[in-house]
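Continuing the series of single-chain predictions for the mutant panel. This is the parent chain; the variants come on the following pages.
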Amino acid sequence: MIGRRANPVSFAMLALLVSGGALIAGFAALRPSGPIAMTNVVEESSAPSRTRETVISCEKLPHVPGKSITTTLVDFPPGIEVPRHRHAGSVTAYVLKGTLNSQLDSNPMGTFGPGGSWFEPPGTLHTYVGNPSATEPAQIMAIFVADSDCGKLTIFEDE
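Parent structure:
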């Protein structure tokens, strides 16, 4: 693009996705294939009224002391609306299937379909996220960069 400057936020989001993907690919050779059960991190429920988080990996970042990168799949049942929440670390969300409406702080709500993504700086209030479909589930891959304890990833406002 001649004469146009790249949006620094878009560039940062792309860089986080690329570096997260490279780390995941690098660690994939060292880990068994398939999801890894990490009961201290994952809060799963068979009830269709809740999201289901599946941790794929949580690895320390050797070049960023005290931080880890955690990759999760989050499934959103049809019609679900997630309570207001925050994340202790940075988050990049990438929609794999379905459609989600998402709003951060007082920014305008966005609608994201497959291939859509958004970035959440640490501590940002996620005021709304919901699956607007009454029949189709949605799924995202969420990549968190947070403290190295691989602990709780989501803090709900009512906690």
